[in-house]
What we know:
By secondary structure, this protein is of the alpha/beta class. The chain has 16 helices and 16 strands. It is about 50% helix and about 20% strand.
Amino acid sequence: MPRNRPTGLARRLAAVLLAVLGCLLAAPAMSAAQTPSVLLTRVDGTITPVVADHLEDGLRTAEREGHEAYVIEMDTPGGLLQSTREIVQEFLASDVPVVVYVTPPGARAASAGAYIAMSAHVAAMAPGTHIGAGTPVTGQGEKASDKVVNDAVAFAVSIAEQRGRSTEFARDMVREGTSVSDREALRIDVVDLVAPSREALLTEVDGRRVVVGPQGERHEVVLHTAGARVVEHNLGFFGEVRQLLASPELAFLFLSIGTLAVIYELASPGMGVGGVIGAVLLVLGFVALSVLPFHVGGLLLLILAAALFAAEVLTPGIGVFAAGGAVALVFAGILLFRGELGIDPAVLWPTAVVVGGGSVLAGRLAWRARKAPPTTGHEGLLGREAVVRRVDGERGQLLLDGAWWAARGRTGPLTEGQHVRVVDLDGLDLIVENAEAAHNGPPTAPEDGS
């Protein structure tokens, strides 16, 4: 029995040590699980359908992963009103508290950005930032019609009313294009706070009560964001590419120039470089169209322009088809995109002129290529000159374009070193004659009495 006591004691000590070790290993995981987290997205640049999709996906992710809040750090000059409406609708009905933070210093929440900031549960700005200037404009940068402006006013005021923000500012930023600094925005109840950094923002909103959820299912939650772990939710590589391509001007350029490159390659086949470049540009153009809202009528006009340019290249004349294609291209650019989207005239007109002129030039080059003497095959060998390198009986060998050819003389045997010209082809044998005789012409008959 005495021998078993140390063994039992050792087992108990081992069990205690294992329990302590298990607690030490589990402590970090338990601490991480108890630490609150926020989902962070950075919005820089224009508000597009790509940004709208990304923010909506962020809301779903924040809800699914149980984050305390969805924080959007924003610096934008504005964007598409339709995309802005989609974002605002998602924010107003969100079950996850949304915090929009205009940052860094010098950033702005202009136009569409102002609507989005005011629709958040918590709107914050960094020192040195500004917000406002929400007047809708057309694709050419001009103020929209009174009907569109009045609709935007009602939209902005309804957002301000639901979030308890200044309806007077909401009205003025649309009608008058009013824009205010961070301190002024805080003073007139446009935003909730001014924070110098992300950490300060999360500390200041900690403990704040906000109402979340869709209409009829709203409930109050308390934010726990002090020292919260930040989880980033980025666009990713393909999202960045789609956002880069979400430009009416780029889409129009890619489709126009890509079409011309493909047509020229088909009309005058070469090494395929033009065709490859054209195909790549067309793919990028259609990717841009998949991101942007467009009219089918504008796309049909674009196809008509491509058909007229193809006709100019394939049947070159005095440029009638090219002129018609340029006109169709201009109208396609005007009608292609919906809503406030539009192609800058500084891009539209030069593109139409360049592509129209390019089709005329491509037609002339293709016509010359078709009329030029052949450089390959039977006809391409006629008239070529070479030197006989070796002779074997009546046949000789000569080198043309890096290849050895068998040759026979048309009027007699060949001699090594003889300079000859190809006059015919018999199977794989070249029929040649003396090149000097060919250059000098036929001999003249001697005069009588000589």
